[in-house]
Amino acid sequence: MAELNANIPEGDLMEKWTKLKSSMPLVNPANKRSIEVIVVGSGLAGASAAATLAEMGYKVKCFCFQDSPRRAHSIAAQGGINAAKNYQNDGDSTYRLFYDTIKGGDYRAREANVYRLAEVSANIIDQCVAQGVPLAREYGGLLDNRSFGGTQVQRTFYAAGQTGQQLLLGAYSALERQIGMGKVEMFTRHEMMDVVVIDGKARGIIARNLITGELERHFGHAVLLGSGGYGNVFYLSTNAMGSNVTAAWKAHKKGAFFGNPCYTQIHPTCIPVSGDHQSKLTLMSESLRNDGRIWVPKKKGDDRSPIDIPEEERDYYLERRYPAFGNLVPRDVASRAAKERCDAGYGVGKSKLAVYLDFKANTERYGRIEANKHNIHNPDKETCMRLGREVIKEKYGNLFDMYKQITGEDPYELPMRIYPAVHYTMGGLWVDYNLMTTVPGLYAMGEANFSDHGANRLGASALMQGLADGYFVIPLTIGAYLSKEIATKAIPLDHPAFVEAEASVKSIVDKFFAIKGTKSVDHFHKKLGKIMWDKCGMARNAKGLTEAIAEIQQLRKDFWSDVRVPGEANEFNPELEKAGRVADFIELGELMCIDALNRNESCGGHFREEYQTEEGEALRDDENYAYVSAWEYKGDVTFNLHKEELKFENIKVAQRSYK
Amino acid sequence: MASFGNAFSSSIGKKLIMGITGLFLISFLAVHCFINALIFVNDGGLTFNLGAHFMATNWFIRAMEVVLMAGLLAHIIQGLRLVFQNQAARPVKYAVVDGAANSKWYSRSMGLLGTILLIFLIVHLSDFWVVSRFTGIPTVDANDHENLFAVMVARFQTPWVVILYVLAMASLCYHLLHGFASAFQTLGWNHKKYTPLIKAFGVWYSIIISILFAIMPVAIYAGFIK
Amino acid sequence: MSTGNMNLTLKIWRQKSSKTNGKLVDYKLSEISPDMSFLEMFDVLNEELISKGDEPVVFDHDCREGICGACSMYINGRPHGPKEGVTTCQLHMRSFKDGDTIVVEPWRAKAFPVIKDLTVDRTAFDRVIAAGGFISVNTGNAQDANNLPIPKVQADSAFEAAACIGCGACVATCKNASAMLFVSAKISQLAQLPQGQPERYRRVQSMVAQMDAEGFGNCTNTGACEAECPKGISLENIARMNRDFLSSKFVSEESI
Ligand SMILES: Cc1cc2nc3c(=O)[nH]c(=O)nc-3n(C[C@H](O)[C@H](O)[C@H](O)COP(=O)(O)OP(=O)(O)OC[C@H]3O[C@@H](n4cnc5c(N)ncnc54)[C@H](O)[C@@H]3O)c2cc1C
Ligand code: HEM
Ligand code: SF4
Ligand code: FES
């Protein structure tokens, strides 16, 4: 097992990025014009990188599978984006954001990367506001903030419950500006099917035009993947239907190591599953935990309507177990606590797999404040609730509407029923400090890489990371590589490596049609999802994981012998797209279980039942597992583990406590 | 070089022409209606003929008449072009359209309502405008003014003419129920405080003006006005 | 467990590609649960079609929570179906009755050609944005965000305009297939912010020119777009755009 070199710059933590910035090799403007960069993905990471690189003068090609770059999955992010601006004067700082993120990640993230993230976070907000992103403001005209889990300061910037949408539209408009100027060539409804590696360097991709089915070869001096996370390996998740691992997985098979695949985030507040027909799960933003209190009845199987259960018969279990952070504990902690209550028989709703998220107390509190503002003294409860509801509506209106739309219940009247659901994947392609994977010239950014969140991501930090990577990090660090590539001429597309990559993609496509099986792609996807959720989900153990690996291997065989892909290859065929994605998910699922089995400790989102404290908290093993697992693909769905040791020089490693 | 560019040929420019000419026609209608309402003095048309005489001889009104006719023509031509262009913007039609769910029928039928108005205008203009401007009004009244009133009374003895006028005024009413406020929207005159007033005024204007116009032929036909 | 008791007749537009003609095809579906979303009902249909060896119906969708703007079905004569303020993916079967016949067609407009079945090409919207729907600020050029206070009312109004998801329901429902609501939402968002002022009049000119070039129809202020927009984008934005357009043509000295 080889040591991996993360290329972390020398020097003091706080100086690393500054120093690197001023010593980074540059590419002169004339040379930039002849250097081509491929960006796969148009989410926050992809769009911001593509726009910025084009602004700098590179020739950029950008790909996404949606019909418009604006529809990338980042659009769905609700709650907010963190930045160490300290506008609230509550003691925030770059160091504190860094500290919170490392601690939130259960000490499994790389210090240098996280510090850099915290450093550039402030610039992100500046850039977005300059682009016209309408972030929430106070009456004085200055930006507003809210709190998110795992922190005790207010550093989250937001735009109602549509922060991701607004940030993405900002990046999208920057991207469209470059497209309009002819500096970015945009390929929508295109799916990357493989990376082309020539002499050990990433030199292009094979993409399928999803409308005509044509396979296309594209050359690039470097290839950047901003293809998002792989939560859909669980079938049901809060991710968009099209989110997939294919781009990252193909890169993995071409030599890029996969980092920490087992670290998945289960988000505590999602709308519970309502039946077998369910196609995806809907998140209720973490911001709701600012004002919602989570509880279950104290009595097992209490079937009364929640409004009939008196205060003293409610168990506000987060406030009880974690008095310091209360309802704002990090996600992994909140999710496990919900599961613990439901497993113990205290769950609510028809399925008993739900807990209440109740806004009543805070609605009343807000109402009282409002009444005061309106000079109503000693307001009655009705008045308080009425006025308070207005405040709640202004803060979370769209989320409340969404909840009502899906469940048919009015959350202004009844508490929401929520349950944890798969939401985010901390794992991803292993990258060094420059965000380069183990394949030279191949970069990964945003949720597609593993870099900044350790074993658990704090709320509002993914948007921050995606934009940090795309706007501020990659455009600079890529210079280190591209400055050595100025002599490389565009490689002709009939180069054997392109021909071979295209042929291998074609053979996979042909194989799908040749099977002519009996079961739809979704059938296999659902099965995979169930195995993953049951055995590699919120709680894992060695026995379950071993079984899961065997089951997934069997599933893979079944898939390749019994899947039915209707239609043809040379037409718009979403079933074919799904087949390719699910084939990759099945292989990834196996690796996730292998990784989870290898990691004999609990940390963050990875909870091994064998390793817990007496109070049921995650029990890390820093002695043996303070490393990043980076898996190398060895062919035929076998993998080899490499380790990147994590060194904590600026933070004292401790057991995470939110009590 | 700075120029007006596509100020009038762009989609918004075309609308601008509709809006300006529409508002101009609306203001003309107010004047027209006022003069015509003079028949309700019921003095055998003397007051009305006085008004008509003033309109026919005042140089400013005469000048405006040219503008009016040009405006009307512009409104009609542009309106019909828009109808065809807009139809072309959806070459394949829907099998099912539930228009009532989201808009008023008359808002969706401006072309149709306008065409009814156009047919009416042809009849109307040849009845009165052509007569008064070109072929000449045959008689004079007691004040020695051209007796346009007599032409009118004669014309409104024919039932189908009366029916056509009433129908046309119903069309006008609906055309304006949409058109009045719409013109303000087109010109960008939208304001949280004023728009509701404009809308309310538009409704009253459309109804009152159409009813006034419509009862004229009816009243004459019925013999209330002599 | 999920199977419900609704039986439905669907009439769905099937069209193999942009080059072929299409037609409405009838399908029967049974045991649909009222808790299903409209798209989940389509999932059930497609699952049945695949198992019968037929080709599934192709439709655009991604987030399934009303924010990406991908889903786009014209249901019983209305874009996104009978409920106000929701996208197709947020529509649930409880909005229909047992025994209903539901006609589903793609968005129809010259500027949105059908790609296959219920999927249309909406890239015209992207080209309109590329023509000027941005603020020209390169990465790294920004000043501190709080150096530019913006009155809350103004910021909120800009945000409301920015909430557009680019779904195209406004075009689909407009009898003229006009894109004014979409275009005005972007213009209006930027026109209300101080950051948007330097390019304000250029922007409206180039975006309107691109909108026209794409073949959208002309607005006649019927208001159908506002009524059907899942995000409640207001007609005020169109008035604001008209105003800016006229200023740009008759007041501003810059022409493009
Ligand atoms: C419901 C929800 C709410 C969230 N809320 C928050 C929040 O409040 N705050 C926060 O910080 N984070 C939040 N997150 C997480 C955050 O939204 C994501 O982690 C982040 O947006 C990912 O951005 P990205 O650019 O890496 O990828 P994405 O936005 O997922 O973009 C992926 C891009 O890659 C393209 N792509 C993928 N595969 C291929 C392929 N094979 N070929 C071609 N193109 C491909 C896609 O077309 C797309 O353009 C939320 C996530 C969800 C699911
Ligand atoms: C006295 C007669 C008329 C008056 C007062 C009148 C007034 C108006 C007004 C105010 C508008 C709204 C403009 C806007 O929205 O900006 C309008 C629109 C329209 N008018 Fe007329 N009109 C008259 C006659 C006609 C005639 C004869 C036609 C013949 C075709 C016509 C066709 C239209 C059409 C098609 C529109 C809709 C165009 C649009 O809104 O873009 N109108 N009219
Ligand atoms: S304005 Fe409304 S209907 Fe039109 S694209 Fe935007 S969100 Fe959709
Ligand atoms: S699928 Fe995203 S809005 Fe409907």
UniProtKB/TrEMBL annotation, chain A:
Record's keyword terms, sorted: Flavoprotein, Oxidoreductase
SUPFAM superfamilies tied to this protein: FAD/NAD(P)-binding domain, Succinate dehydrogenase/fumarate reductase flavoprotein C-terminal domain, Succinate dehydrogenase/fumarate reductase flavoprotein, catalytic domain
Signal peptide, first to last residue: none
EC nos: 1.3.5.1
Superkingdom in the source lineage: Bacteria
Occurrences of domain FAD-dependent oxidoreductase 2 FAD-binding (ranges): 37-463
Protein name (database record): Succinate dehydrogenase (Quinone) flavoprotein subunit
Source organism of the structure: Pedobacter gandavensis
UniProtKB/TrEMBL annotation, chain B:
Annotated transmembrane regions: 16-39, 59-84, 105-125, 160-181, 202-224
Keyword Cell inner membrane found: no
InterPro entries reported in the protein's UniProt record: Cytochrome_b-558, SQR/QFR_C/D
Domain of life of the native organism: Bacteria
Keyword vocabulary terms for this entry: Membrane, Transmembrane, Transmembrane helix
Protein name listed in UniProt: Succinate dehydrogenase
Native source species: Pedobacter gandavensis
Automatic annotation (TrEMBL), chain C:
Gene3D superfamilies named among the record's database cross-references: 3.10.20.30, Alpha-helical ferredoxin (1.10.1060.10)
Pfam families: Fer2_3, Fer4_8
Domain 4Fe-4S ferredoxin-type as annotated: residue spans: 155-185
Cofactor(s) demanded: [3Fe-4S] cluster; [2Fe-2S] cluster
Superkingdom in the source lineage: Bacteria
Protein family: Belongs to the succinate dehydrogenase/fumarate reductase iron-sulfur protein family.
Protein name (Swiss-Prot/TrEMBL): Succinate dehydrogenase/fumarate reductase iron-sulfur subunit
Origin species: Pedobacter gandavensis
